[in-house]
Each structure stands twice: as C-alpha cells, then as structure tokens.
Here is the input.
Amino acid sequence: YGGDKGLFGYGLNGGGATTNMSVTNKVSTSGVIASDTSGVGTARRTLTACSYGTNLDKGIFGFGYSTTTVSITNLVSNTGVVATDTTGVGTGKFYLGACSYAGDKGIFGFGNDGSITSDTNLVSNTGVVATDTTGVGTARQRVAATQYGGGKALFGYGHTGSVSSLTNLVSGTGVVAADTTGVGTARAGLAACSFN
Here is the structure.
C-alpha cells in the first residue's frame, strides 16, 4: 500500500476453524513489521490479496475460508487502513491466487469453490470486484500469481489433483490465456513476486 509499503493480514492461529484471524501487520518502507492492528472484517484463512489503484497504492484482501467459503473483500487505503467487509461478488473460494495487472488493476483466480476451479474475478482501479469470468486453462488450487512485463500477469503451478507446473499468462486487459506447458518442478502451495 502507499506505493512503497506492505501489509500482512488474516490467517490461522493454531488448528481448527475457530482460530481464524483478521489482525493485520504493516510493513514500513525499510521492511520493519509493526505489531498487530486489531482485526477488521470477517476472520478467515487461505484468502489472497493484491495491489490496485494509481501507482498500485491501495490493496484488497479477498475470498478465503471462514466457517465456509466466502467471497467477501476488504479494501486497504493508501495509508494502510483496512475497510470493513464488502459483500462478496462472485463465487466464494479459497486456495486461490491474485496479483495486479495493467498498472492499476487486480485479478483473483483459480482456487477451490467446493471443487477445483479456474474462474477469475477482475478488480477495477477503484477496487470493484467483477463477477466470475469463466475459467480458461486447467482448474487448479494452491496456485501463485505475479505481475510482470510492465502490466501483465501470470498464474502458475498449483494442484489439479496432482501437483502441476502449468502457467497461464494474463494480458494487459485481464484476459487469461490457455495453459502453457509447465517448466520447472511441479508444485503447489508456493508464492510468487515481481522484481526489477
């Protein structure tokens, strides 16, 4: 958030659905993690988040698992303030991926909505989540996603019923491409980020 800071949020503290959390921790421009900020919104786990807005200065947490799958989202301001729940748009899911694209927008995709899916949900530059876009590519969960190439994105790897190394490119207009044959070791539950 803010174009140069970060935010950790939500998750699971221990075992069982009763220990879902909604606390957040800010990350400063020098990489220092702050103490807990009291949770806002529905406590949940296996959600995901991405940046959006002018200069990618805002954030959005979305989807996840509370006592069931949810599609609610929580916007993050450019000062790191997490908003209350926004009523879910699209099908609730968890174990999904998300990243920014086009310099000011975001995309949620893949995951598990009761079964493994490849549906996606675009996020506008004002943080509005669109309804489901029918999935392109092989349905899978526990994927990772990252931006690349100055406005494009990529979903990769995950679990289709077995671990996978498939990838799906995302254009600068948010269109997801068909599968690209996997490169590298198949795996799931991984993370991805951009660098320059």
